[in-house]
Structure formats: structure tokens, C-alpha cells
């Protein structure tokens, strides 16, 4: 774990002391200044680079010092990827690390002895984030502050169960991992998509399900399992990804177990998803990127009423070669609801 330290004149002495002690304990330290005591330096100038370093590396930690710790914490918390807190004893350091997942510790040199500060630093470095409900709360902070979210519509659990004659679309459950694993065992599925790995392991399905659950909570992605009504088996997935509520658009993606191909299943699932996207998520536009050598997928979106918008040349390196992408899009007013 890399630790970036910085301090203005108020925290200079404390920073020097901490660096010396932490180096002795074999921590990987990077000193971002100030490199000499200057009573006229300004903390924003001094700490900005250390903040950027921490923001760029999710495993890194920062320690910033000034007279009270508050100025540097205000500066650090303006960065969307930083969670900084002033800690004045070990107890609060532990709590804010565990519950707020702070990646920068701010120390007030005027209020702490050097020894107290070192104990606080050790507590900060040795405790782990607890996740769970605390993660949900941090996600909410990100959501409320994101410039890109627009008005997020309210979605009820019942809105996430989409039904047609033969199929049901519903959010994935942990118990779907085996069905996904078994149905995705066809190299053509990986070859036609951008992210599906090959070979595909049961753990890939488990990780994928966890990811879809998280992104559903954040409303950044809405992935559904395609379940055959009579068999209660997940035979494929379909979803809206990169959901942008400011510009009201999202990307459509899907795959289906190969033994079910060419029975109209994904076209039917696509119809349900478009209705969900335009009516429940209030989207204006849904788009889809398809490798130019994937006639079945092009046929699906054309049947759904998407318009071909252009060819993006050699956009993806997949299967050891550059692949062209055909971009399709459909607007709310073009979608036939019947
Ligand atoms: C693309 C895919 C999702 C289609 O699912 P599906 O349920 O079979 O699709 P549908 O049956 O609703 O429609 C497919 C259409 O393509 C046609 N088709 C299938 N293979 C074709 C081919 N090689 N050439 C031309 N048309 C083809 C089918 O006949 C059908 O058209 P029709 O209804 O006029 O007969 C499925 O093939 C798949 O999972 N492929 C691998 C993953 C993938 O490509 N995902 C999409 C990435 S953009």
C-alpha cells in the first residue's frame, strides 16, 4: 500500500516526524512536501498533488497535516474519489476508516502530540472498510453528487419483473450462477460480445451476478436474466448498461444460450426491455453496438425497430483482431409499443 503525505507550514514538523516513523516500519512512503518550513505557504498548493495521487490508486492512502486538519480535509473532499476525515483520537480514526472508508486521514498538528498522531495513523492504516450498509450510504453520496445522473425515476421491485408469453425477465439471483455457466458454454457467445470471457468459469458467473446486483442498486445498469416460464431456468441475459439519466440514454446488450437461438426469444426480451427503458426509466434513446460480422444480432435490433447509425471501424481488439462495430439506435418516439 502506498502512502502519500503532505503538509503545509502548520503540519510540517508533524509530517516529518510521521515519515521518519513510518519508514522505519517499512511502509511505502511518498513525501509530497512541503520540503522545507515556510510560514507563508498555502495548504491547497501543497496538498493538491498528494490528493490526486490517492484518487488515482484505489489501494493508496493519504495523510495530510495542517494546524487543525480541517483546511486540508475540505480541500481533499472536493475530489469525487476522496473520502477524507479529521481524526483526533484512535477511536474516531477506526470508526471513520471502517464506516466511511476514508482514503485520506487529516491531522491537526496544533491539537495532537506527535505520539498521539502516530497512534491515529497506525489505526487508520490497519483498519478495513466494513462495506454492507456503509457501502450503500457511500454509493448514495456519489449518486447525489454526480453531475451525470439527472432525475432518477423511482423503480419499484415489481417494475423489475417483465413478462411475455414464454419468458420472464427478472434481476439475477446468486442461485442463477449454474444456469448462466451452463448456457454460456459456447465460444461464439464470447466471440460476439466485448466482455464475456473464454473459457467461462462458474466464478465468472458468480462475479457477474454480484456486479449486476450492485449496479442495479446504483441504478447504473439494469441487467435481467431471461427465464423460460415453463422451466424456471435462466437461459441468457439482457440489460441496459451505461444508463445516463441526464441525457436519458442507455446501451442495450444481450446473449442467449445457443440451444435456444433463432426462436425469437431475444427479440421478445428486447421488446420488454425497450418498453421498460422508455416507460419506467423514461429514456429518450437506446443504442446498441454490434460487431459487423454478427448477422443474428443485427437482425434482432432491426426487428425491434432500431436504425443503423453508422459503422465504427476497428473499435475493439477481440479474438486477436480488430473488429468493426455497427452502431444502432432507437428513440422513444420510434418504438412501437404494440
Ligand atoms: C444474437 C442473439 C442474442 C440472438 O438471439 P435469438 O433469440 O436467437 O434471436 P431471435 O431468434 O430473436 O432473432 C435472430 C434472427 O437472426 C436470424 N439469424 C440467426 N443467425 C443468422 C445468420 N447467421 N445470418 C442471418 N440471420 C441469422 C434468425 O433467423 C432470426 O431472424 P428471424 O426471426 O427473421 O428468423 C444470439 O444469437 C446470441 O446470444 N449470440 C451470441 C451473443 C451475441 O451476439 N450477443 C449480442 C452482442 S451485440
Please provide a brief summary of the model.
It contains 11 helices and 13 strands. With 338 residues, it is of the alpha/beta class. The chain folds into 2 domains: 144 residues, Ribose 5-phosphate Isomerase B, Chain: A (3-Layer(aba) Sandwich); 178 residues, Gcn5-related N-acetyltransferase (GNAT) (Aminopeptidase, 3-Layer(aba) Sandwich), CATH 3.40.630.30.
What tags apply to this protein structure?
single chain, 338 residues, alpha/beta, Ribose 5-phosphate Isomerase B, Chain: A, Aminopeptidase, 2 domains, eight-stranded mixed beta sheet, five-stranded parallel beta sheet, 11 helices, 26% strand, elongated, binds coenzyme A
